[in-house]
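Section 3.1: Structural characterization of target chains.
Under the original work plan, the team committed to producing a structural model for every single-chain target entering the pipeline before any wet-lab resources were allocated. The record below documents one such target. The sequence was received from the expression subgroup and is listed exactly as submitted; it comprises 406 residues.
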Amino acid sequence: MYDVSEIRRDFPILSREVNGKPLVYLDNGASAQKPQVVIDAVTRGYAEEYANVHRGLHFLSNLATEKYEAVRGTVARFLGARDEEEVVFTSGTTEGINLVAYSWAMPRLEPGDEIILSVMEHHANVVPWHFLRERQGVVIKWVDVDATGALDPQQVIDAIGPKTKLIAITHLSNVLGTVVDVKTICAAARQRGVAVLIDGSQSAVHMPVNVEEIGCDFYAITGHKLYGPSGSGAIWIRKERMDEMRPFMGGGDMIREVHKDSVTYADPPMKFEAGTPGIVQQIGLGVALDYLMDLGMENIAAHEASVAAYAKARMEGLNWLQVQGHAPGKAAIFSFTLEGAAHAHDISTILDKKGVAVRAGHHCAGPLMDHLGVSATCRASFGLYNTEQEVDALIDALELAHELFA
């Protein structure tokens, strides 16, 4: 049984008040709160078990290394990957995408080669490709969403041409909540010899993910959205792509031997993990993923779908609320504005006075804001611990904002 009241007790911060009101935390799309088991793991990691990993021969180093490396297998299980050696630890999705841009794309793409993006992409999946556009003459091809915010996979497939080398696409929009049919896109891309990178920052939090079934080449996740520590994350890289990649950063841990006139690199994944890593952060990520898998991603998805349906019904009763994105099967993410001149920042400030935490701004999605014709929106993004009562609190706060700005 999925007992949300019991689950909420796992998250200490949810019992606090903000501005004299019970905290209603609806900013999960930016960063999720942490369960006590993750907090305990991080505290224990620093207070009782800390040492640098790899190469150390003493007890604490061996313990830290064992716990740190065990997370690689945890990530592989979470993503449905067959081989944990295809998991590279990163500080988050941003580093993972930049790793692919510098290690795989930069040495392979020539002027005129194309990268396909959707208009929904987060800046982390836009700016690295602009680097290649500026520095190497790579062409970025954009695919739009329809009026509901849905992305037709056939449009992405139709955009593939003889010069297309990579499709870099989100699995779930952080603004619209749109779920993308990445499996269909990957199947067509593979037939044409085109690599596919998937930004899984949002999707991996809300639904089961199996990279083998999806058929992608790269799949990036970020720990702080997965109820784990900030500064943690990973990217799954298909082995044949990994073999095509040069090192991203140089330093300790990613080498086998260094001499005055030569260097030999370690085998992947260590080849891509230079320097002292986020040891405790990654251990905390492993605990967070175990927590999610114990709850069951199918159960989490079902709970969030129920809350999303309730939120959608409540919002549809507010004719002065403009919600962006109505794609079928969208996740529990709602971006909205109020009629009139109220700015998203002003709206979020009023909501905060009622203890309701939402995000306001462009959500690191400038191309999508341009496409929608808005400069900013408020965003309520729900997680595994949110409830229908919190939806009601959001609606009450929105009604207050409407009264003040009408």
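The radius of gyration is 22 Å.
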